[in-house]
Q: What sequence folds into this?
């Protein structure tokens, strides 16, 4: 077993599947070729293969393998095979994907004290992707060999659906397409999806307690655009700076708990702005016309429509405050000078969600709006596909072009969403499967306790993961989300119907490691060779037997 795991991991790590590159395809082929050697799949070629992600700029694919057993009780195994870049390895960079040789090289380098101690212990494996998360996938791929034999003999009590996904480290294109593949298998074979095991590395606290996550935090990316009134800076009061509004919105969101959700002693951190700037193309002596920025909002229960409503209220308040402040300022200024620029300072303070402004323009301009919108969408899609802009900048450009088309001559705020969107997911809150997270934890912790590990439950993993697409625990107005997401469609979409269809309790089941995404990324051998296989086998066996008492999982 140990040799089998090591050799497969060494070969898999050597496939340099860096996120958002065409090498991700090679990892799909690696997984497909591995399963192709199983007599089970030679007898059932329709049960495994490679699924193309529609309209993917890197032509990425999803390898899958389905073992059909004696009942509909199904365990889903899903994990990502993309890894982050290797620039941080410095002089060890040429060996970053070499499981055999990297360790000796790192030994000669200046390691941080904890990494040095682990290096000296000889208890760890070192390479990019070894922890996050090829080792977890490898453990389950090796276990699949035993289960495939059982399936061949007609002795497999339930079904196993295995799926590898690309792009987890970027936009989760793999998992967003994979839910459709899974929903299709579910329908075709009448599967009962009892659990989804995601062999991402498990977090461990300093005292060795293993954290079992039964859900994952949600992430939305609101984009704020403010239009002001241009004027020469010497005639300041003839104009209005959009920075006065967007600055206030940034402060009232980033430095406030207005968006903090709580659940059972866990809380989301306040939003973080990733970008905030005026939209001047070059410097001149004029008040900027527009400014825009975008932020990450993490959530547990808040849905995109609720987040939009909260943001609209904050935008309105910020807008009114800014106008009132400029009016006060003008009043004080006019006391100091006889050369009044204007006597009164007032503007209306309209705040639009993207979809609302589109509806209004469609009502006003009819076919002209439709033509604009279709052409604009095509333009932005082409730019994203060509890699000229990312989703966020493409969204900002779309919003700016919409305002140019609208030609509204007064200040306003326009709000939209940019990709990505990760749903908050909590196994405890799945409609009709309430408390599944608690039950999953109870079983998982009994197994780990038996292996000598202390455990603790976590309802929402805060690091953002593919687990967000294990289902939809809070039904919401998905049309309102897509209407407020300018680049929604061919370039970015989420199959909400498929999500509601799969709704599967989910947890992380990978081996224990340290420092993911760093050059000191490493994996604990004992966890890889002993604990993780035993843990995964126990979970698979348990959930192929059907659901927990008192719950009729659909
Ligand atoms: Zn990962």
A:
């Amino acid at each position: 077993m140990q040799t089998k795991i090591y050799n497969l991991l060494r070969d898999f790590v050597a496939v340099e599947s860096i996120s958002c590159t065409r090498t991700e395809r090679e990892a799909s082929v690696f997984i497909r070729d591995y399963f192709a050697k199983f007599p089970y799949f030679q007898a059932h070629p329709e049960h495994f293969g490679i699924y193309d992600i529609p309209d993917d700029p890197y032509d990425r694919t999803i390898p899958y393998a389905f073992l059909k057993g004696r009942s509909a009780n199904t365990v889903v195994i899903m994990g990502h095979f993309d890894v982050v870049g290797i620039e941080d390895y410095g002089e060890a960079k040429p060996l970053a994907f070499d499981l055999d040789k990297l360790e000796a090289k790192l030994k000669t380098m200046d390691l941080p004290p904890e990494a040095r101690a682990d290096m000296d212990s000889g208890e760890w494996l070192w390479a990019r992707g070894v922890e996050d998360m090829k080792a977890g996938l490898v453990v389950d791929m090796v276990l699949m060999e035993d289960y495939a034999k059982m399936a061949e003999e007609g002795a497999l009590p339930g079904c196993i659906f295995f799926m590898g996904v690309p792009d987890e480290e970027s936009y989760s294109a793999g998992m967003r397409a994979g839910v459709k593949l899974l929903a299709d298998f579910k329908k075709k074979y009448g599967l009962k999806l009892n659990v989804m095991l995601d062999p991402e590395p498990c977090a461990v606290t300093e005292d060795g307690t293993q954290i079992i996550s039964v859900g994952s935090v949600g992430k939305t990316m609101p984009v704020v655009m403010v239009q002001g009134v241009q004027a020469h800076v010497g005639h300041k009061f003839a104009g209005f700076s959009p920075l006065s509004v967007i600055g206030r919105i940034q402060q009232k969101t980033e430095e406030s708990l207005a968006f903090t959700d709580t659940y059972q002693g866990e809380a989301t951190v306040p939003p973080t702005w990733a970008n905030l700037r005026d939209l001047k193309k070059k410097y001149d002596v004029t008040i900027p016309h527009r400014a825009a920025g975008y932020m990450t909002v993490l959530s547990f229960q808040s849905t995109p429509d609720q987040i939009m409503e909260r943001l609209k209220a904050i935008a309105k308040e910020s807008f009114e405050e800014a106008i009132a402040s400029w009016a006060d300022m003008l009043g004080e200024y006019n006391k100091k000078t006889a050369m009044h620029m204007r006597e009164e300072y007032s503007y209306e303070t309209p705040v639009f969600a993207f979809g609302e402004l589109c509806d209004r323009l469609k009502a006003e301009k009819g076919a002209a709006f439709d033509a604009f919108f279709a052409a604009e969408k095509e333009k932005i899609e082409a730019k994203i596909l060509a890699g000229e802009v990312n989703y966020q900048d493409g969204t900002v450009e779309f919003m700016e072009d919409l305002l140019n088309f609208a030609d509204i001559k007064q200040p306003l705020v326009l709000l939209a969403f940019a990709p990505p969107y990760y749903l908050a997911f909590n196994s405890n809150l799945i409609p009709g499967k309430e408390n599944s997270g608690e039950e999953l934890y109870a079983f998982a912790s009994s197994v780990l306790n038996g292996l000598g590990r202390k455990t603790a439950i976590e309802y929402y993993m805060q690091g953002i993961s593919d687990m967000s697409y294990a289902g939809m625990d809070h039904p919401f107005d998905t049309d309102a989300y897509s209407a407020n997401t300018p680049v929604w469609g061919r370039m970015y979409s989420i199959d909400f119907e498929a999500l509601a269809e799969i709704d599967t309790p989910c947890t992380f089941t990978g081996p224990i490691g340290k420092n993911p995404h760093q050059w000191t990324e490493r994996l604990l051998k004992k966890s890889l060779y002993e604990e993780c296989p035993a843990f995964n086998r126990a979970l698979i066996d348990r959930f192929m037997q059907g659901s927990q008492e008192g719950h009729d999982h659909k």
About this structure: The chain is about 40% helix and 20% strand. Residues 548-554 have pLDDT under 50 and may be disordered.
